[in-house]
Automatic annotation (TrEMBL):
All copies of domain GFO/IDH/MocA-like oxidoreductase, residue ranges: 130-260
Superkingdom of the source species: Bacteria
Protein name according to UniProt: Gfo/Idh/MocA family oxidoreductase
Pfam families: GFO_IDH_MocA, GFO_IDH_MocA_C3
Keyword tags: Oxidoreductase
Domain Gfo/Idh/MocA-like oxidoreductase N-terminal residue range list: 4-122
Entry GO MF terms: nucleotide binding; oxidoreductase activity
Entry annotated with the keyword Cell wall biogenesis/degradation: no
Organism field: Candidatus Polarisedimenticola svalbardensis
Length: 353
């Protein structure tokens, strides 16, 4: 398999890890770096012995680049994703795919029309804990899913919103127009992705409340969502970036035959069925998982998918569905009512949605 020749677009905070892990994946080499902040791009290019490109056009015109890994503020996902696809480059996009479904449509369309691959960095799916949870659900440990509860609380200090944690400081995270939203689209989007992945279910209807209570931002720092899944299961999600002192990350998935709790300690599973060699009717704690680089796994899967001519594990459609959940949550609060989550019937665009 030929290695991917990856051009890095955006050399800010997360791009540091993305670039290193792309190299570590063993299926890619760094073919260049571009950032409007030339200093950070030059630094990365030097550190990773890759060429520096002074403009995005020069990178996209280069035959030495066949794939771009885009890690830039959200409002730039569409223009750069579309431009890369139109230049015949495969697109690896940081999450979320875009800020709106119309923007996401444009990216999916451009990739389809130009015959290039698209994946979005929902790579937590590759964590062994998440893979194990999905396997247990598929083995029937929970029976039919009846309920999902997600809790994600952290504390983001004011510097988070002004870019103080980045090597390329900018306050785009605080802007509704640039970021598309707050904690939900920025952070909780990963959990929404992997809970849908684990259960194989999509969310059908959403009602939400959110606010900006104590952050220097236009976007939400706390959100609460009630939802109904396609099989009738009922879910809730509470997330905030203003919980002081105690981080909390927990997903509880229950069904007709059991309950599974995922948190920092691993997986706790109760099942009335004998699955995976586990005694039924008892709570089992599954704590040990191999250490893997989820980002490198994501790169490896994308390279293999192109080689095998299949969809990547995290497809454009998956990312579109994820964004449909997020934008519906924002929509619901603005309308003051429950909303249906849109469905993408094909990747040919908004007209068919
Ligand atoms: N997967 C994860 O766990 C994870 C974690 C953090 C951030 N992210 C995502 O990564 C993306 C970037 O976030 P970040 O925290 O690295 O932001 P950042 O602000 O640290 O970096 C963004 C970079 O993009 C550059 N940039 C701006 N406009 C550009 C343009 N037109 N062309 C090229 N470069 C441009 C900036 O100069 C900056 O260096 C976002 O989509 C964010 O949601 C993902």
């Amino acid at each position: 398999m030929e290695p991917l020749k990856i051009g890095i677009i955006g050399a800010g905070a997360i791009a540091q890890r993305n670039a290193r892990e792309a190299v570590a994946s063993g299926v890619a080499r760094l073919a260049g770096v571009f950032d409007v902040n030339h200093k950070v791009a030059r630094n990365m290019a030097k550190a990773l012995s890759a060429p520096f490109y002074p403009t995005v056009e020069s990178m996209l015109a280069s035959p030495d680049v066949d794939t771009v890994l885009i890690s830039v503020p959200h409002h730039l996902h569409r223009p750069l994703g579309v431009q890369a696809a139109q230049s015949g480059k495969h697109v690896m996009m940081e999450k979320p795919v875009a800020n709106s479904l119309e923007e996401a449509d444009a990216i999916l369309d451009a990739c389809k029309t130009n015959g290039v691959g698209l994946t979005v960095n929902y790579s937590f799916r590759f964590l062994p804990k998440i893979q194990k949870a999905k396997q247990l659900v598929e083995m029937g440990a929970l029976g039919d899913i009846t309920g999902i509860q997600i809790l994600q609380h952290q504390y983001k200090d004011p510097g988070y919103w002004t870019g103080a944690r980045s090597n390329s400081p900018d306050d785009w995270r605080a802007s509704r127009e640039k970021c598309g939203g707050g904690f939900l689209i920025m952070t909780t989007c990963h959990i929404i992705d992997y809970v849908h992945f684990i259960t194989g279910l999509r969310t059908e209807r959403i009602y939400s409340e959110y606010g900006t209570l104590c952050s220097p931002a236009e976007v939400e720092d706390i959100i609460s969502i009630a939802c109904k899944l396609e099989n009738g299961a009922v879910g809730s999600l509470c997330a905030s970036s203003i919980m002081r002192g105690v981080d909390q990350n927990e997903e509880r998935i229950s069904g007709t035959n059991g309950t599974m709790v995922l948190n920092e300690d691993g997986i706790s599973l109760f099942s009335t069925r004998p699955v995976d060699g586990l005694k039924p009717g008892k709570v089992h704690r599954i704590k040990k998982f191999p250490d893997v680089s989820w980002t490198a796994e994501w790169v490896r899967d994308f390279a293999t998918s192109l080689h095998e001519g299949r969809e990547p594990a995290v497809s454009g459609r998956d990312a579109w569905d994820n964004l449909a959940f997020i934008t519906s949550a924002y929509d619901s609060m603005e309308k003051g009512m429950a909303v249906q989550v849109p469905v993408l019937p094909s990747v040919t665009g908004a007209k068919e949605r």
